[in-house]
Structures are given as structure tokens and as C-alpha cells.
Amino acid sequence: MGRLSELIVKLWYRARGYRVRDCNWRTRGGELDLILCKEHQIVFVEVRGRRGSGLVSPLDSFDLRKQYYFERCAVYYLHRHGLVAANARLDFAGVTWVGLCPRIQVIEDVRRFEC
Hints:
This protein is α+β, with helices and mostly antiparallel strands. Helices cover 26% and strands 44% of the residues. The chain has one domain (2-111): Trna Endonuclease, Chain: A, domain 1, CATH 3.40.1350.
């Protein structure tokens, strides 16, 4: 379900003019699901997929600790690739599956960079 949710979100962003820069980029501190770009902006996207009958919504599963690791991985990616945090944002995409139908909720700028 996780990979399918990532694919759905990737297509959602591509339909809005974003290009995929990287997918499932890993480091010791964690993983970045999607790294996209549009013009001069880099967008890091954390994707969470859940079944509609689950007890925890996708957004509820993205607690402060996980947000911190997400931000830390994004800062490391920027540093490693010589990019500037001022041109980057952190997004969250939750996909709730009701049967075979995905419901996508995207929150832009879910967390501010503190670097």
C-alpha cells in the first residue's frame, strides 16, 4: 500500500507541473519519500497511506518526532547536493484508501526549516 500511495501522490504532483528529482532517498537518519522540483523550488514530500477503516489517520501518524527526522533528512539532502533551504519546502501527503479509491490530502509547508 505504501508504494502505491507514493505513486498516486507522485502523479498528483506531476499533474500540477512538478518534476520528480528523487524517490525513496535513504540516509542513516531516515528516508525521503519524494523529492520534487518546480522552477527553482525543491519540495520534499512525506507520504503516508492508510486504510479507511484504520484507527489512525495518515496525518495523525506523522507525529512531531517523525516530522523532526523528516526535516533533518531534508536538510542533509540539501547540504549534500549544494542546495539552499530558502528554496525548499516540506509537504505532507496522506492517502486514505476506501476500498480501491484513494483520497489524497496534501498539506504544503507542514514544517518550517530550522537550519
